[in-house]
Specification:
The complex is a heterotrimer of chains A (207), B (191) and C (203). Helix content of chain A is 49%, strand content 24%. With 207 residues, chain A is α+β, with helices and mostly antiparallel strands. Chain B is mainly α. In chain B, 73% of the residues lie in helices and 0% in strands. In chain B, helix 3 packs across helix 4, helix 3 packs parallel to helix 7 and helix 4 packs across helix 5. Helix content of chain C is 63%, strand content 2%. In chain C, strands 1-2 form a two-stranded antiparallel sheet. Classes of the chains: A alpha+beta (207), B mainly alpha (191), C mainly alpha (203). At the A-B interface, helix 1 and helix 4 of A face loops of B.
Chain lengths: 207, 191, 203
Amino acid sequence: MREIARLVLVLGLIAACSAAALSYVRTALEPRIERQSDFYVRGPALERLFGAPASEVLGNKIIVEADGLSYPIFYFQTEGRLAGLAVEAPGKGGYGGDIVIMVGLDLESGKMLGVEIISHSETPGLGAQVEKASFRRQWRNLEIGSPAALSGNGGRIDAITGATYSSKAMIDGTNQIVDLLMKHEEDVRAMIARRDDRASAESGRDR
Amino acid sequence: MNLIELTLGAIFVNNILLAQYLGNCPFCGVSKKLGTAAGMGAAVIFVATLSSVFTWLAYHYILVPQDLEFLKTLIFILIIAALVQFVEIFLKKQSRALYESLGIYLPLITTNCAVMGIALLNIKHGLGFWQTLVFSTSSATGFALAIILFAGIRERMFTSPVPQAMRGTAVALVTAGIMSLAFLGFAGMVE
Amino acid sequence: MTLLQTLTHGFWRDLPPFRLVLGLCPALAVTTAAENGMGMGLAVTFVLIFSNMFISILRRVIPGKVRIASYIVVIATLVVLVELFMKAFFFPLSQQLGIYIPLIVVNCIILGRAEAFASRNPVLPSMADGLSVGLGFTLSLTLVGSLREILGSGTWFGMPVFGAGYEPFAFMVKAPGAFLCLGLLLGLMNAWSRKRGEIFIQT
């Protein structure tokens, strides 16, 4: 009996110390990890979509919850007006799981700026070819208001040969974003305006 | 996603051992005899499938809701270790012969990168429950296939004139490389 | 074994994964580039030093029955810490190494040294053992990584080595190249060993 008590005690203590150490480190490092992830993963994508240095845009971030999913949105302003959005969505149905894409939207012209891949687990040489610029170029100047589709289904996007699932996942992600804007554009703009006010109030205070 | 494609992909195209490098320690150690290799393969299929199910459930119903995904490494290995213990106890009682023949290799399944690797891949690929079940069984079958093929080749190699320096693990690795090259030919079979 | 011997045995006598045939998975998986190999090696070294340290400190306290379970908890905790640390400070590297970072927890080297050394030796020698085996492993990984990167991509640590006309052996950075590279290197080391009159440790 004493032996079992000792077993449980020692294992329990080790587990408790482990849990404490991990929780502490995690809480301490989480904000930094978030920023690193944004900088390395989303930064280059944002630069390519907006044509502006990532540092200008990375700070302009809101997260919209809709239909049980969270959509990170980065916004771009010119002369105080909301000019562009980059919306991130998980395209479902990829061969290796979700393909997380980021679609750039030009709000003034109503057309898409392009699409960037944030993360994927597709097969190298096959589905991974969604990363190719020649494939993604097809997203430029698509109408924001209308759903995208593969050319096999009457749409304008040519799928990658031998990578049907991956191509479809790209379409799925794009349409989630189209949907999001059709239903929630006003809410998104309101959220951005609120966040903007907060941000300028804070920086005003710092001055 | 089509379950058949998932299965074929896991066994051939992305073979857990020959393409994803997972499960090498037992590969070089156990594959000397065909019988042991087959036993190991079967044991891994069993443990990998069970542990994938439990780790998947733990991840989606405990870790994610509590925002504790970062603990998956710790929780997964504990689940696997516990499972292997249970399997050991179970085999000892139910099938003494199998238990004896597996010997030390049974507890070694705990540190088999393939088992832990499959559990992690299920999460990485964002698979659903049934997909996880199919994927883990298939991946482990791919491992068993590779290890059995390998054992067959190695048994023959023992009676071949291999240069002294290359005997043992060295030539085993080179053989694995050639097998891996062969399996590369499966790429493009799915999708 | 004296402290000096402990500090150096990981560099040849018990060099993983060649002489001490453990830790093959990462040796094959992450050595697509020299930098990745080195990063992985250093991460493993970190875990080795501290797991050996903790297990040595606790060696008289842990009851025999829960030995392996306790080791696993300690090692896994350290690996999660390394994961978090890498994501916070070496993000691109952590992306390159991917799932192989959490897989450090099943790296046979760490459990192996815990069982073979840390559980029966005082703290300082255990840490020295961890350092030595870990750094030896790092050297091996960096070596294999360098070979595969130079032959397979024509670069070394990202810097181009050959001229623009070099046609790389693409398969070197894929699975077959990994196995072949490791196998041939091992063969070379065995031959060298025999010349020096040493006895083989692995078969």
